[in-house]
TrEMBL record:
InterPro entries: Homeodomain-like_sf (IPR009057), HTH-type_TetR-like_transc_reg (IPR050109), HTH_TetR (IPR001647), KstR2_TetR_C (IPR041490), Tet_transcr_reg_TetR-rel_C_sf (IPR036271). This is TetR/AcrR family transcriptional regulator. It comes from the Bacteria. SUPFAM superfamilies: Homeodomain-like, Tetracyclin repressor-like, C-terminal domain. PANTHER family: HTH-TYPE TRANSCRIPTIONAL REGULATOR BETI, HTH-TYPE TRANSCRIPTIONAL REGULATOR RUTR. Gene3D superfamilies: Homeodomain-like, Tetracycline Repressor, domain 2. The keyword Transcription regulation applies. Keywords: DNA-binding, Transcription, Transcription regulation. Residues 40-59 bind DNA. The keyword Transit peptide does not apply. Residues 17-77 form the HTH tetR-type domain.
Length: 237
């Protein structure tokens, strides 16, 4: 597991620099460290070196902050996936490459937000929870559509498009729990995750004489991801 992240006084901002994004960032850290139930508006204001009134100018409650965090990552993920899967003229391999790269980049640039959403979604009001579920299902549907096109065209070897899509999305989502943005560049990591995903579904006639099983595809993803995680923990040369 990644080391705990805390908001230190050195990161507190002068009141004049307070803005919506700084509040979301501070709240994300506190929701991870203290839990959603253990955090209040005063905690967020103190972490920012601001007044409670200043925070209320942007958000009326911590629930409103959680809703904003959820909307930011879940709806954007759906929009990104839809922007690719709607173009059936793209070759399946190219489309899947874009899907994974976009999804991975979104998570790698918002790791805390993804962790907060996963941990605290149950604290959302039902309409917002329903919207978050719908957004996740939309992302899955777009991945399934592209992978199924590749299977039908004979360029992907995954025997089940939905299981393959869940495995690829799960690999990307898990990066939110181990990726450390301060010590690693986002773009190379997104490219690495994309290559891992493609290797597990793209047909290689020299390596695959028959379709790979679902179990084998998931095993390969986990094996490659373990190697990638280990590399991110190694100190730079």
């Amino acid at each position: 597991m990644p080391k705990a992240t805390t908001l230190t006084k050195s990161r507190a901002q002068p009141r004049g620099e307070l803005n919506r994004q700084s509040i979301l960032d501070a709240a994300s850290l506190l929701f991870i460290d203290k839990g959603f139930g253990g955090t209040n508006i005063n905690d967020i204001a103190d972490a920012l070196g601001a007044t409670r009134t200043a925070v209320y100018y942007y958000f009326q409650s911590k629930e409103a902050i959680l809703e904003a965090l959820t909307e930011e990552v879940t709806e954007q993920a759906g929009e990104l996936a839809r922007s690719v899967s709607g173009h059936d003229e793209l070759p399946p391999e190219q489309a899947l490459r874009q899907l994974v790269a976009q999804h991975a980049t979104l998570i790698l640039t918002h790791p805390l937000q993804f962790r907060v959403v996963e941990r605290s979604e149950s604290s959302l009001p039902e309409p917002r929870r329903a919207a978050a579920r719908a957004a996740r299902h939309s992302v899955l549907d777009h991945f399934v559509h592209v992978i199924q096109r590749g299977i039908d065209a004979g360029v992907f070897v995954a025997p089940d498009a939905r299981t393959a899509a869940l495995a690829v999305i799960g690999m990307c989502n898990w990066s939110a729990w181990w990726f450390e943005p301060d010590g690693n560049a986002v773009e190379p990591m997104a490219q690495a995750l994309t290559e891992l995903a493609l290797r597990c579904v793209v047909r290689d006639r020299q390596r695959h004489q028959r379709p790979a099983s679902v179990t084998e595809s998931i095993r390969l993803l986990r094996e490659h991801l373990d190697i990638l995680e280990a590399q991110t923990r190694q100190p730079p040369d």
